[in-house]
Design goal:
Blueprint: H1 8-18, H2 30-40, E1 42-44, H3 56-59, H4 69-75, E2 80-83, E3 89-92, H5 97-104, H6 110-115, H7 121-133, E4 136-137, H8 138-145, H9 150-165, E5 169-175, E6 181-186, H10 187-190, H11 193-200, H12 204-219, H13 224-231, H14 235-247, E7 251-256, E8 261-266
Antiparallel strand pairs: 1-3, 2-3, 4-6, 5-6, 7-8
Length: about 280
């Protein structure tokens, strides 16, 4: 039984503060973007249509200042950036890298994943290129992969996304000249050694519990079904994580009639902080 009723207005007010979409808290600088990523732990580059999720794009008020940050932040290793959630660009604070790596990555080295039939030959070919030659731009990988053709271009782009979602490669910088071109590196070489070590000490179940708790704190109100969809996890595993978090009083259920039923919310309910936020102290 839900303990209390939450109105849509309460949810929207809490989200506007948490996500920095309230005008007084919108971000205007790279420093502000990094603050947002640190506060939330993980945040999308751009929102997903039809789904309420925090994003750097929304926090910047739609202004195009955010476009370069997906290159400049990973360039200086200020945070992790790769296509993770629903295969979309996702910023992850280094503090939150260990749970994500533990939740998604296979600890076996990639050559063993290939030997065990988990990776195909084309995926291994791209990983071999990065292992042998170091960081490479997308176009350099595409040219080394095979003859120039639309088919090969599509194939390389698809493989690069697949390897990102499995935490095998990530962006190491790049350029937005013309449009956007990432430079790639192996995650095992890009991530700090202490972050990889911290990930090895987490079980997949522990990692997912941490991520679910933080996600509910970030979005303020959600459902187990939405969590399973966003993170591409088995619903039974999500229900188990939710049950443990409820038992530990990290989250709780609330009635949200305007959203169609019960939702999961943080415990305690977040109280919007007072103050002007980012626009009162812009980073340069």
């Amino acid at each position: 039984m839900a303990a209390r009723t939450i109105s849509l207005k309460e949810i929207e007010r809490a989200r506007a503060h948490r996500w920095r979409t309230a005008r007084a808290r919108q971000i205007t600088s790279e420093r502000g973007a990094l603050r947002l990523i640190s506060e939330l732990g993980f945040v999308l580059l751009m929102g997903i249509s039809g789904t309420e999720l925090p994003s750097v794009h929304a926090a910047a008020g739609g202004e195009w200042v955010w476009w370069d940050w997906k290159q400049t932040l990973p360039e200086r290793k200020a945070c992790y950036y790769a296509k993770v959630l629903r295969r979309r660009g996702t910023f992850i604070a280094w503090e939150w890298f260990p749970p994500f790596f533990a939740a998604y990555a296979d600890p076996r080295p990639y050559w063993r994943l290939y030997r065990d039939g988990v990776l195909d030959r084309a995926e291994k070919q791209i990983l071999d290129l990065l292992a042998d030659q170091g960081q490479l731009m997308t176009r350099e990988i595409r040219l080394a992969f095979g003859p120039r053709s639309k088919e090969n271009t599509r194939r390389v782009k698809s493989i690069l996304v697949d390897l990102q979602t499995r935490f095998l490669i990530a962006a190491a910088g790049g350029t937005t000249a013309g449009w956007s071109h990432h430079r790639w590196d192996l995650v095992e070489r890009l991530a700090p050694a202490e972050s990889l070590a911290a990930a090895s000490r987490l079980s997949r179940e522990q990692a997912r519990r941490k991520i679910v708790a933080q996600f509910i704190s970030n979005v303020v109100a959600t459902t187990a079904a939405d969590i399973a969809w966003l993170f591409a996890w088995d619903r039974a595993e999500v229900d188990r994580a939710v049950g443990e978090l409820v038992a530990g009083r990290k989250i709780r259920a609330a009635a949200a009639p305007e959203l169609g039923g019960d939702v999961l919310v943080p415990a305690p309910w977040p109280r919007a902080a007072r103050g002007s936020g980012e626009r009162g102290s812009r980073g340069k």
